Amino acid sequence: MRLALIWSEVWNGLRRNVSMVVSVVLVTFISLTFVGTAVLLQMQIGQMKNYWYDRAQVAIYLCTADSAGDTCAAGAATEEQRAAVQSALESSTLAPFVDKFYFEDQTQAFTNFQEQFKGNDIAQFVTADQLPETFWVNMKDASQSDVLVEAFSGVAGVEQVTDQRQYLDQIFSVLNIASYTAIGIAALMLVAAALLIATTIRLSAYSRRRELGIMRLVGASNRFIQTPFILEGVFAALIGSILAAGAVITIVQVFVQGYLADRMRYVNFVDLGDAFVVLPILLLVGVLLAAISANFAISRYLKV
Question: Which part of the chain is the FtsX extracellular domain (predicted)?
Fold first, then answer.
């Protein structure tokens, strides 16, 4: 009987405040969608870092005829200088750090450049002799790339030693900024949802103040009186959480796997398995947010 009465009060409260309930559902839905997207973006960044950092190469660019600098004062790198670089990579000092390497001559570099910048006007103004010969080195541990940078910096015939991870760091920095922005927006939306839930509960309590007074007079406990209001907030937030979960699944299935994955096959994108890991978080956050907000509102403002 008590349970039936509680659910009757919950239904009456929801029915009387339909517009506010819809507002709570929408705000919770939008805020938790941002939360889910931000979590998935962080998971995507983590996967990409694990994949690309392990495959990041160190490029040892040899001097060309147009190179400047003390190590290129004699002009383009000679056969002896190329052989010296290769011998150093195969030496007992550096070999323990090197997984594999290959040499790219100017003809190969030009072919790769034309493919990379196909359709770009810059491809028309570059010739093979302007591109450097390069040793591309894969490290056993990408975090130890500084060993090669120190070993070949200042060596005659070597124009520059570049760790590709510095370019990846710039890309991941942009992705992290986007992720933190989504988290910030989600936090603001969650605050708005909490305030809206609290306001809804206050209005619902005010509209039923006479009934609450009667319940108090007949001996109803504070917990019995407060429970329907908390359940109202939890119910509305739960609907918003379920909608947010559906939106996250749709984003992963339709946009990430259905669009991006087909066009960028070299990237390991998040999938439905990752999305299903996020879903319980969204539901838990939605329910807790509503329960805490409603309990605070009814304890703070309901005078019984």
Answer: 57-161
Least confident of 25-29, 108-112, 267-271: 267-271
Whole-structure pTM value: 0.64
Residue type, 248: V
**Would you say residue 132 lies in a domain?**
yes
244: pLDDT confidence band, cut at 50, 70 and 90? very high
Here the CATH number for the domain that contains residue 68 is 3.30.70
Sign for the CA dihedral angle at 194, 197, 199, 202 comes to negative
Residue 142: its pLDDT value, please?
Answer: 74
Is the per-residue pLDDT at 12 higher than 70? no
Q: Are residues 111 and 251 in the same domain?
A: no
Does residue 102 have a pLDDT over 70?
A: yes
3-state secondary structure the chain: CHHHHHHHHHHHHHHHCHHHHHHHHHHHHHHHHHHHHHHHHHHHHHHHHHHHHHHCEEEEEECCCCCCCHHHCCCCCCHHHHHHHHHHHHCCCCHHHEEEEEEECHHHHHHHHHHHCCCCHHHHHCCHHHCCCEEEEEECCHHHCHHHHHHHCCCCCEEEEEECHHHHHHHHHHHHHHHHHHHHHHHHHHHHHHHHHHHHHHHHHHHCHHHHHHHHHCCCCHHHHHHHHHHHHHHHHHHHHHHHHHHHHHHHHHHHHHHHHHHCCCCCCCCHHHHHHHHHHHHHHHHHHHHHHHHHHHHHHCCC
Between 263 and 239, the more confident residue is 239
Residues 7 and 92 in one domain: no
Q: What is the pLDDT of residue 1?
A: 39
Asked if 46 and 192 sit in the same domain, the reply is: yes
Mean per-residue pLDDT for 99-115? 87
